[in-house]
Write a structure and sequence with these properties.
CATH topology: Transcription Regulator spoIIAA
CATH class: Alpha Beta
Helix content: 40-55%
CATH superfamily: STAS domain
Shape: globular
Radius of gyration: 13 Å
CATH architecture: 2-Layer Sandwich
Strand content: 25-35%
Strand order of the largest sheet: 1-2-3-4-5
Structural class: alpha/beta
Distance between the termini: 41 Å
């Protein structure tokens, strides 16, 4: 049914989580696990690459809200990159652009961390 996976890689001190497929209530625990793992390793500079994400539900959105406070308390952030319009529209509708930074490319998001 719901097909979702993440791939994690590091670019200097920035962690990139690639999201692929459909992020919903059934698959959100996979993303929660990825964030928990990064936080346990004290990795707080995170870029979420949405290039291959086709769909996100409110449960998926909730994952980002669940971890952002802890990440920002540790001088980190989650930056969003490479979102398709239909996924961006969901974030936009719920006011996420006031809370998070969105970038057209992963490279732009990574560079924002390097130039803060």
């Amino acid at each position: 049914m719901s097909d979702f996976n993440t791939a994690l890689r590091e670019n200097d001190d920035v962690q990139v989580i690639e999201l692929c497929g459909y992020l919903d209530a059934h698959t959100a625990p996979q993303l929660e696990s990825a964030f928990s793992d990064l936080i346990s390793k004290k990795k707080y500079k995170i870029v979420a690459n949405f290039e291959k994400l086709k769909y996100i539900s409110s449960a998926g959105l909730g994952v980002f809200m669940a971890f952002i406070e802890t990440i920002r308390e540790n001088n980190g952030d989650i930056k969003f990159a490479s979102m398709i319009p239909s996924v961006y529209n969901i974030f936009d509708l719920l006011g996420f652009p006031m809370l998070y930074e969105f970038f057209n490319s992963e490279e732009e998001a990574i560079n924002k961390f390097k130039h803060n």
